[in-house]
Amino acid sequence: MSVSRVLDVVADAAPEIRAGLPERRTKAETENESGEAQLEADLWADDLLYDRLADVDGVNWYGSEERADPLTVGDAEDGVAVAVDPLDGSSNVKSNNPCGTVVGVYDEPLPAPGSSLVAAAFVLYGPITTMTVARDGDVTEYLLEGGERTDLGGVELPENPVVYGFGGRVPDWTEAFEAYVRDVEQELKLRYGGAMIADVNQVLEYGGVFGYPGLQSQAEGKLRACFESMPIAYIVETAGGASSDGTRSLLDLDPDGLHERTPTFVGNESVIEDLEAALSD
Ligand code: AFP
Predict the structure, then answer these.
(1) Same domain? 92 vs 170
(2) Is residue 195 lining ligand 1, measured as CB closer than 6 Å?
(3) Which of 97, 114, 115, 157 sits at 20 to 30 Å (Cα–Cα) from 242?
(4) What CATH code is carried by the domain that includes residue 71?
């Protein structure tokens, strides 16, 4: 089945991507569609994933942070679309901090609505390499080591929120969002590392909230719906948490473009409810 094959390909590619990072920490001369400087590692990871995923029977479309437009790569009946952020948090590579790979599998062509996600996964290149997969109503974490994939068990968001991390410069936050954060910080502990995958994984491990808000200078925030926000929302919601763009679940979004941005929040339901209430005031 193509969804299983897509996840196998990503799991097999991850150790190679990790092993290729040390020699690709320099900036390429190019920018991606969102105007961000690309690293050699971004382009290389994208090429590697494209070569392998486009080859999978049943993958009809490939979209990536590093490519302007989705590509048609197959014509299978009931084929899926794969949207990837090949190296999420790649600016962490230079400073030797964690980064990741994000994958969303949709049963519609890109840009696809969140409701058409059939699976999502992320790889975290931290002290160890793990892959977290949401599929068929369950989230499972795997250790990727020595060519082996070891099942580390099911993932469920802990009941009590503990950590929080929000992106964007504080003076650029809106007044309503800043007031919400002042409440959050009374109870929770700040943990922000600048790579969504690593920050979201802390939320999955300890409970809490991660977000990148709409800013005064950029109301839609920074993160891109198709290959960042919606796949992560699918994973966190499947693990028992909630997601929001400030007013509704990220899985209710229907982006017009592959690189469309959205304010992004994921975490414990109570903290997301408080956020929506604070932003609606
Ligand atoms: P890079 O891939 O350019 O490092 O961006 C990472 C990211 O898209 C996401 O992983 C982080 O949550 C967010 O940007 C961090 O952005 P700030 O640098 O503005 O905190």
Answers:
(1) no
(2) yes
(3) 97
(4) 3.30.540.10
Q: Is there a contact between 101 and 84 (Cβ–Cβ < 8 Å)? A: yes
Amino acid at 196: M
Question: Is the Cβ atom of 129 under 6 angstroms away from ligand 1?
Answer: no
Q: Rounded to an integer, what distance in angstroms lies between the CA atom of residue 84 and that of residue 63?
A: 6
For ligand 1, atom 5, which residue shows the shortest CA distance? 89
Given a contact cutoff of 8 angstroms between Cβ atoms, the answer to whether 229 and 86 are in contact is no
Instruction: Judge if 108 and 64 occupy the same domain.
Output: yes
pTM exceeds 0.70: yes
Q: What is the CATH number of the domain that holds 168?
A: 3.40.190.80
Residue nearest to atom 19 of ligand 1 (CA): 168
Q: 91-112: per-residue pLDDT in tens?
A: 999 999 999 999 999 999 999 9
pLDDT tens, 168-217? 999 999 999 999 999 999 999 999 999 999 999 999 999 999 999 999 99
Question: Mutate which of 196, 210, 266 to test ligand 1's pocket (most atoms within 8 Å of Cβ)?
Answer: 196
Which is it for strands 71-72 and 80-88: parallel, antiparallel or unpaired? Answer: unpaired
